[in-house]
Every structure is written in C-alpha cells, then in structure tokens.
Specification:
The protein has about 200 residues and is an all-alpha fold. It has nine helices and no strands. The protein has helices at about 10-25, 35-40, 45-50, 55-80, 90-100, 105-115, 120-135, 140-165, 175-190.
Length: about 200
C-alpha cells in the first residue's frame, strides 16, 4: 500500500504545472495532456480535471505559470542591467531561452494551432504588467523594443536555426540583432536628472 503525501490544492496545482512544464520541454506541447501529467505525478485524470477543468485549462494555466516565472527572471535581469551588474545581452538571452529552451514558443504555437488563443492572454498580460512594473510603459521606444524582442525570440524558437542556416548566418545572429536593438534603445533614452 503506497502512502502519498496529501497536498493542498495550490501545492497540487504547482506539482502538476511543473510536471507539465517538464513534458513541454522534454517532448513538446503535444505531450502536455491531462493523462500524461497525471501519470507523471501519480494522480488521476479526474484529479487534474478538478484543478484545471480541461486540457485547454491546463495549457492556459501552464502558459500563465511560464509567463510569470520567466517574466520574474527577465525583470531581475533588466534591473541588474540598469544597475550595471548585468547587460542587455542577459535580457536578450533570458528572453530567447524562455521561448526556446523553456518551451514558451512551442506552447504558444501549439495553442494557436489548437484554437486555444485565449490561453495566450496570461502571457500577454504578464508581459504588459512587466513593462508597467519596470516603469517603461510611457516610453514608445521601450514598448516597441519589448514587442520586437518578444517577436524575435518567438520567431527564433520556431524557426531560427533552419533560417540562420538558409541565410548563411551564425545561429546567434537574431540574438546579436536583438542586443543591438536594446543597446541602441538605451542610448536613445532621455537621461532624467536626479533631483
């Protein structure tokens, strides 16, 4: 007889989301099913239905979870860059890795192709909140750079490798271009004198 630790509803959701994230990174978005996640964490399909309602509910919760954890990391990198500890390249690498290695690009495209477009709302909302939190919403340049950086990272995750090869460019070319864009944006930003 196995004895499983009783988890709170929030702990149970987090365990399921981390399992879903693992499946996403290891196997791809098509593997993120209620059955697969339930099997990975030793719970029942019904248990996950209780927490997420459906497979699309699980995907939406996973998108929100990814967006929140990734944006928190990017926020820290932006703050470090502003204080001279980090660099714009750190921000670029974290953003590109989020969409590539962390699976956000694959999940995004899968949700769009599955007709689960509203599942993208948590990603978009979290990025919006990040821009506001970093006090960059009033700057057209920063909002434009954020848009371009996210779209570049998403595109790179989906087809960056093959396209770089086809254009006879180094694999890092898109990251290099994104870094240049951020550096130029920082140089163009008005300096606000301290009072």
């Amino acid at each position: 007889m196995s004895i499983r630790k009783r988890l709170s509803p929030e702990e149970s959701r987090m365990v399921a989301l981390e399992a879903a994230r693992g499946l996403l990174v290891e196997t791809g978005p098509q593997a993120v099913t209620l059955k697969a996640v339930a099997g990975r964490i030793g719970r029942t399909h019904a248990n996950l239905l209780h927490h997420f309602g459906s497979a699309s509910g699980l995907q939406k919760a996973l998108a929100k979870h990814l967006a929140e954890t990734i944006c928190a990391t990017i926020r820290d990198a932006v703050i470090a860059s502003r204080s001279g500890i980090g660099s714009p390249r750190d921000v670029v690498d974290l953003t590109f890795d989020a969409f590539g290695k962390e699976g956000a690009g694959a999940l995004t495209s899968w949700m769009l192709l599955s007709g689960n477009e509203d599942a993208l709302d948590p990603i978009v909302d979290t990025i919006h909140d990040l821009v506001i939190d970093l006090d960059e919403y009033g700057s057209d340049t920063q909002r434009s750079n954020t848009l371009a950086l996210i779209l570049m990272a998403l595109g790179d995750a989906l087809m960056g490798g093959p396209l770089a090869i086809a254009l006879d460019l180094p694999r890092e070319a898109a990251r290099d271009r994104a870094e240049k864009m951020l550096v130029e944006g920082l140089q163009a930003a008005p300096v606000i004198p301290e009072s």
